[in-house]
Amino acid sequence: MKFRPKIVPGSLCKMALALIVSLVAYAPQAALSQQKHAVVPTSTIFPGDVITRDRVTEVLVTNPNLSPGYADDTQVVVGKVSKRTLVAGRTIQVGDLRDPFAVQRGAAIRIVYSVGGMNLSASGTAIEDGMAGEVVRVRNRDTGVTISGTALQDGTVEVFQK
Description:
With 162 residues, this protein is an alpha+beta fold.
């Protein structure tokens, strides 16, 4: 014999109404938590420009077919450099950004070399651009010799031993 609870018609309506009210009450909160945002420029940003906070804004994504890979937080793009022209109001693709160069071609730089307790430094000129951590070629101003070293965040180049 199966157990069948006794349902009073009035209580069924009350339970259904309570369920509907609770779903409606929580639906907007769930929808808000699932909304996506995209970062867009407020004005045109050209290649080589550093992106600042006042040049971008976050907007609500309303197109469900938007291609992936766009920046969804301003912290992702601020301080980066654009590799191509970014049009105002269009999403910014993360692949269109790079870190700023620590060493720029043609700039006067300091060359440092350390071994044991000995530290040597010389003035030089960068032959190529480089981000922090990249290997770049530099020319020693005193000797004219071209050497390679690692670009540091402060703009100096640390020469390594062969």
